[in-house]
Amino acid sequence: MNIIGLALSLYSWFLLAFIVMLMFLIARFYQQKSGFLSHYRLFLVPAVLFVLIALTDVLPHASRVVGLLAEALLLAGGIFLIVLSRMLFVSMTGGRK
């Protein structure tokens, strides 16, 4: 992988980590100010999964098994983040669509 591709890959992972941490802070602020349970600590699970995926993405000689594991972690982290975001949205809007 060339240096530009590596830099762009790391940039995208850092951007994703920033968005997840922003969601974590929003959920924590909402729970502190409203008193409703927002499960903000669970937003750390996809953040950790995405960090593990980023590390496997940067490794120069990752095996096929590591690649498949990274893809499975990416899928799990993405689904978990979608579910958490939806729960936070419903909690913050009172169930309105």
Can you walk me through this structure?
The protein is mainly alpha-helical and 97 residues long. It has three helices and no strands. The longest helix is centred in the first third of the chain and has 32 residues, at 3-34. The chain has one domain. The chain has helices at residues 3-34, 44-58, 64-93.
Please provide a brief summary of the model:
This protein has 97 residues and is mainly alpha-helical. The chain has three helices and no strands.
Give a topology summary.
Elements (H helix, E strand, L loop, with lengths): L2 H32 L9 H15 L5 H30 L4
Helix pairs in contact: 1-2, 1-3, 2-3
Biggest pleated sheet: none
> Which structural class is indicated by helix and strand composition?
mainly alpha
Q: What is the CA-atom radius of gyration, in angstroms?
A: 16 Å
The overall pLDDT, averaged over residues, is 86
Poorly predicted ranges: none
The tally of strands reads 0
Strand content: under 5%
The sequence of SSEs as H and E is HHH
Count of helical regions: 3
What's the N-to-C terminus distance? Answer: 44 Å
Query: Which percent range fits the helix content?
Result: over 70%
Key attributes of the depicted protein:
97 residues; mainly alpha; 3 helices
